[in-house]
Amino acid sequence: MSVNITPIRVMLADDEHLIRGAVAALLGLEEDLQVVAEAASGPEALVMARAHRPDVAVLDLQMPGADGVAVATSLRAELPSCRTMIVTGHGRPGHLKRALEVGVRAFVPKTVSAQKLAEIIRTVHSGSRYVDPELAADAISVGDSPLTGREAELLELAEGGAPIAEIAKRSSLTPGTVRNYLSAAVAKLGAENRHAAARIARAQGWL
To answer: Are 75 and 103 in contact (CB under 8 A)?
Structure first.
């Protein structure tokens, strides 16, 4: 007697079309997995998730429009039944911590095999977590970000080269206050200037 299996509905979000297509094809070979939606950007992922209501959303960390952590944050609020997991080719300790803080259930490198990815999707769907051991070890060794939320926010605004006046306007602060926050961030990170500090913070995944 055959048993009907209700497949786990999966959404894939990755701006690299070739990778996304290959993963979709490989996951499609699994009897208990069904790729119901694909997206190439953060905003598109949210649109597709609302339309298809997947059980598990597999999100690339770095996507146009909104990164995987931002998408996971929105999905947690809008579709709490949808489990989220992050795949990345640029794993940083800060990214892992941010992801776990917003309820992401798995954090894995893009080097993982399709078979292992399928196993992790099942793990996440069952309510458990999976964090790549190497990424977890790196996160523990690096420690928490020394930056406050406001310092990180202003450093991110400074990252693109915006002048103090523009950063002040965008953050609704005075130029003097912005300089104070950025000076504190530069000192904490041992950087030469705010642009170097932004690069250091970005490399650690703190922005």
So the answer is: no
